[in-house]
Amino acid sequence: MSLASVLRRTAVATAVLGLTLTTASTATAAPKRPVVNAPVTVNLTVQGPASTLFSGSLSTTGHDVTTASGGTHHCDGTNGGANTTPGATPTAALDDAAHTQGFTWDGTWYASFDDYFVTSIASVPGGADAYWNISVNGTPIPVGGCQFRLNSGDKVAFTWTEL
Asked: Is pTM beyond 0.85 here?
């Protein structure tokens, strides 16, 4: 075998190996993951039996929430396996508004549901004859307030509702 033939085979083998390694590293590179739990801006309204208790725009994310009767629990849309990635939720938005605007809210934590049941907002209880309905964009949510993921621009409402 001539020296030229050996050099040619070596060059071809090196090129094939280089292409193989380049292709393999590109194929196995982790895909870019979307940003999760990024802040979203929503419009929140809290409508009590006689007046609007809060109405405004706020930036929120999913986060741990603490209530007097329910304790501290995550509230980021992954509750109950509802979503695989965390994000802003109606209950987290209510909690953010309460902290920034100086009103209180309370909710009972149900471990079997992995969510809070809102029992009072700004000292206005639901009680035996009413409850706090949660809706997004005018539609009652089909899951708990820590399970429903919000999008930027959503209109979130907690409305005192008679039974």
From this structure: no
